[in-house]
Each structure stands twice: as C-alpha cells, then as structure tokens.
C-alpha cells in the first residue's frame, strides 16, 4: 500500500514538473497531479478486499450516498476551476480586436486614397503629354509653312517629320505612351516574347504596312509567331486609342529601324 502511495506521488510530481516546464497553465499542472492521485486511488482499490453484497433498502441508500459524494466532489472541484462566460469572453476579444481592425480599415482606406491620387496624377500627366504632343505637331507644321518648307511623305504613304531628332522624340514618346515595350523588344530593351524584336522592321515593311499592322493587328503575322497570331496577342485597340497623326509618327519612326544585325522575323501578309 505504501509503495503504491509513493509511486502515485512520484508520478504526480513528475507530471506537475513536466507540465510546468512545457508551459502549461497553472490550473492544468494541478489537474495532471490530481489525475495521478486519482489513478493511484483506483490502483489501490484493485487490491482492496471485496465489499459484502448488500440488497434491498441498504443498497438504495448506499447508491444515493455514493452519488451524493461524487456530485459534491465534481461540483466542488469544478467550482475551483476558472469560470468562463462566453459572452464575457466575446466582449474581451472584441475589445482586443476593435482597435486593430480600426487601424487596418484606416490603413486600407488611406492606401486606396493614395492609389486613386496616384492614378489621377498619372492620367493628368498623360493628358498633358498628349496635349503637348498635339501642340508640337501643329507648331512644327506652322513653322514649316512659314519658312516655305513643305513636309514630305514617305514613299509608302506614311507621315514623316523632317527633323530626324524630332521624329525620334515623337516616335519614342508614342512607343512609351502606348506601352509597345510590353510585347516587343527594341534596341535591347523591353519585350516579353509575345511579339517579335523590331530593330530591323524598317527593312522588312514599309511605313504604310507598319501603320496597317498597328491599326489592324491581323493584317500581318510575324514568322515564328503563329501561336501568338492565332491567340490575337496584339490587341485591336489602337485605332480607337490613337489619333491618326500619332499612328503616322509611330509608324514613321519604326520605319527607320534598319539594324540588320538583329534577326527581326519576316512579316507575312494575311489580310
């Protein structure tokens, strides 16, 4: 009997220490110890002498007394444990989360406002660039007329600008504005393999054909880009987005790209 008591205490203390080391709450540490003691009592009862059978009224009274003892034990033990009110706990959680939720929502709102502001600024900048581009073309035409210079056209019918530097500036501006670099590589920059490199496109297509390709993407197909052509990777939107003079400038600028060291795919007429 003494050995069982000592063994139960050792096991209980071991569980208590282990629970403490592992960081269990204090109430769980005591529960582990209590379970060890309960196991010890059960183990001791296995060797206890058998109780004489009782029947009749004595059996009923014994059953009621046993039930009352267990009820007092469980109810009393439970009353010692921390009591939790679900509504009270929900209130605590809400108090903890409310400030964080408020900060999060405030941060999202501020972020959205910042994004909208940035988009507004970008749209205003683009409008200003387009406006200035139109003014530049008009001013150049007026200056040429005042000087008695008539602006020439390319043999293919596309528009041209007399000053190569000005053509470079206006063409590159349209290239950037229309984000052609997303699909095409030019002068070693841009391109995501959705469209061919264009460094030698001026040797393979006339300015008029380049203009046609911009406005009607299905009119020509680059050799080796059959899948991209079938999937209509080049969007059919520039005839709505761009003014004709802007298409002319972009086509004329691309027509000057005649770097034969770059393997620009051969364009194939489709429509």
Under the CATH scheme, the architecture of the domain at 164-269 is: Orthogonal Bundle
CATH secondary-structure class of the domain at 164-269: Mainly Alpha
CATH domain fold name of the domain at 164-269: Cytochrome Bc1 Complex, Chain D, domain 2
Proportion of residues in helical segments: 55-70%
Give the spatial strand order of the biggest sheet.
Answer: 1-2
Domain Cytochrome c: 141-258
Transmembrane segments: 29-48, 60-81
Keywords: Coiled coil, Heme, Iron, Membrane, Metal-binding, Transmembrane, Transmembrane helix
Organism: Nitrospira tepida
Question: What does this protein structure show overall?
Answer:
The chain is mainly α and 271 residues long. Among the domains are: 1-48; 164-269, Cytochrome Bc1 Complex, Chain D, domain 2 (Orthogonal Bundle), CATH 1.10.760. Helices cover 63% and strands 2% of the residues. It is built from 10 helices and 2 strands. The protein has a two-stranded antiparallel sheet. 15% of the residues are buried. InterPro entries: Cyt_c-like_dom, Cyt_c-like_dom_sf. Keywords: Coiled coil, Heme, Iron, Membrane, Metal-binding, Transmembrane, Transmembrane helix.
Summed up:
Helices cover 63% and strands 2% of the residues. The chain has ten helices and two strands. InterPro entries: Cyt_c-like_dom, Cyt_c-like_dom_sf.
């Amino acid at each position: 009997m003494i050995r069982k008591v000592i063994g139960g205490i050792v096991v209980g203390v071991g569980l208590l220490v282990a629970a403490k080391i592992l960081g269990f709450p204090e109430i769980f540490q005591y529960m582990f110890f209590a379970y060890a003691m309960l196991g010890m009592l059960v183990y001791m009862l296995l060797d206890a002498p058998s109780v004489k059978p009782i029947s009749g009224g004595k059996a009923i009274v014994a059953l009621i007394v046993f039930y009352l003892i267990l009820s007092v034990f469980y109810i009393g033990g439970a009353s010692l444990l921390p009591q939790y009110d679900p509504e009270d706990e929900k209130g605590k959680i809400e108090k903890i989360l409310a400030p964080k939720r408020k900060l999060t929502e405030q941060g999202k709102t501020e972020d959205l406002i910042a994004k909208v502001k940035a988009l507004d600024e970008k749209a205003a900048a683009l409008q200003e660039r387009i406006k200035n581009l139109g003014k530049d073309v008009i001013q150049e035409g007026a200056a040429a007329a005042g000087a008695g210079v008539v602006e020439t056209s390319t043999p293919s019918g596309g528009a041209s600008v007399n000053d190569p530097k000005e053509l470079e500036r206006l063409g590159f501006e349209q290239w950037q504005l229309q984000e052609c670099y997303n699909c095409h590589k030019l002068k070693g920059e841009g391109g995501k393999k959705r469209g061919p490199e264009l460094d030698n496109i001026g040797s393979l297509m006339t300015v008029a054909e380049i203009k046609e390709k911009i406005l009607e993407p299905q009119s020509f197909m680059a050799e080796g880009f059959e899948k991209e052509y079938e999937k209509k990777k080049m969007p059919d939107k520039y005839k709505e987005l761009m003014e004709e003079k802007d298409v002319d400038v972009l086509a004329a600028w691309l027509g000057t790209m005649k770097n034969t060291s770059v393997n620009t795919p051969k364009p194939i007429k489709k429509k």
